[in-house]
User: Fold this.
Amino acid sequence: MALNRDCHAVLIDLDGTMVDTAPDIVAAVGLMLKDFGAAPLPFDMVTGFIGNGVRKLVRRSLDAAGLAERVGLEHAQAVFEAHYAVTNATLGRVFPGVTAGLRALRQHGYRCACVTNKPQPLAAALLEKTGLAAHLDVLVAGDTLASMKPSPEPLWHACRLLDVEPEHSALVGDSSVDIAAARAAGLPVFIVSYGYGSANGTGMPCCDALIDSFEALPAILAQLCPAGDANENTDASA
Assistant:
């Protein structure tokens, strides 16, 4: 892979990329459906709904449970979010290598931002509870702007907050949503092999690199940066 560009910042997806949030989300969906008198949905089915924002997750869950015609989406979303505020960061875990990889990126001078479609209160709480917030400079959530991924706007906004041009940034994610956002924003995109959207590789558009662990990121980014270190190309501090 030779993209011939200096990279000073890394934008990173949250669910399925940094944290295995599926157990927390599936539990909250199950509690929501129970409140409406429906049985829980299969774990893998709900996991497949993750990545496009809470509203779409709730809508698809209601559809799958046969509740869409008798339960209002706004009410269901409020019920889900109340349950998820309790289950958030209680059952899931940070994926292996993520904390070490983030620490290494910061040590090499890269600015790091989380760009997620999860609402800000839930995303911020998750990052704090898992300890990942300490390794990130910026959070751009699903409700920070009027649009979310796959729009390029959240990526461009993160770059503005980091004071780094998009052409000197890269995105790490786990799904076709991340790939579409990166392509629209003009960023290279690296996909984790373990993520929710990339586990099967089915229908996954081409990315610039498939990685098994965040610990591989410094070496991959060194291929983009001739100097091999963001410190030598930017004033960004660790």
In short: The beta strands are 9-12, 19-20, 93-94, 111-115, 138-140, 169-173, 189-192, 209-211. Residues 232-238 have pLDDT under 50 and may be disordered. The two ends are 26 Å apart (CA to CA).
